[in-house]
Amino acid sequence: MRTRTLRLEPVVFNTFNAVIMIALAVVTLYPFLNTLAVSFNAGNDTVRGGIYLWPRIWTDQNYKAVFAGGTLYHAFWVSVARTVIATVLSLFLTSMLSYAVSRREYVFRKPVTLLIVLTMYFNAGLIPSYFLMKDLHLLNSFWVYVIPGLISAFNMIVIRTYMQTLPEGLIESARVDGAGDFRTFFSIILPLCQPVLATVALFVAVGQWNSWFDTFIYASSKQSLSTLQYELMKLLSSASLSNSNPSVANSSNPGAVHNMVTPMSIRAAITIVASVPILIVYPFLQKYFVHGMQLGSVKE
């Protein structure tokens, strides 16, 4: 009887575990699937509610309204450019700084670390930041997207903590072989830091991709520098202000009524358009993301 009970325990545990995981997956995926269904549903029908996982009246009018202006394609490539350039430069400079402050022989590592960490607690504010960008001649310049965020205190701490977990013998062996700091950094430290660098790259890339406020403050007067998120924000604002088109709503043509777009439907389409690129990239970085967060968050 006892042997039979012991055999049932793994079955019960696995069944319970599977039910819990399926429930968590449903809860996690439902908001995205619901947004996807709303984005493909007719706008006037969406106002009635009751859209869950499947559109009631299929339409692509919401996406046509999003891409109708023609400015989103150029804004998309501006967002891609700022994300790629800012991520690469931020990783390079932050990792070099992290390596410097992780070395015990660097006598100023504690004061430098303290100064960098203080930036996490104190902020000059929006107006001083604007005047700083103006004095640096970065207003209406592409580099206003890149230069202000090159060094992140949080990312520096994560990378530095990871570097401090690396065996000291590797660096000492490189020094014995005659390698300098740059050779040690590029040949030994960087290859070993791939997990944490992928983690930080995801942080920086997501932040750059989702950013629109810096465009609004520093580059809104130059259309060629407009980003995808800023264009989507303007589209959502205009849709919310207009709320609906009375001429279409009062039309006797049922097809015209079905082609209406509403703030709710536009919002859903915008959410899908903005999130798809990140969803495509994330699976390739997921294993590095989890591994890097585990090793870079706690110092042994």
Question: What is the top-level CATH class of the domain at 70-242?
Answer: Mainly Alpha
Separation, N- and C-terminal Cα atoms: 46 Å
Average pLDDT works out at: 81
Helix content: over 70%
Radius of gyration: 25 Å
Backbone structural class: mainly alpha
Taken as a percent bin, the fraction of beta residues is: under 5%
Tell how many strands the DSSP assignment holds.
Answer: 0
Q: Helix count?
A: 15
State the low-pLDDT regions, or none: 244-258, 296-300
CATH superfamily descriptor of the domain at 70-242? MetI-like
The biggest beta sheet reads: none
* H/E element order: HHHHHHHHHHHHHHH
CATH architecture of the domain at 70-242: Orthogonal Bundle
Judging from the principal axes of the Cα atoms, what is the shape?
flat
Provide the CATH topology of the domain at 70-242.
MetI-like fold
List keywords for this structure.
300 residues; mainly alpha; MetI-like fold; 15 helices; flat; disordered C terminus; cell membrane; membrane
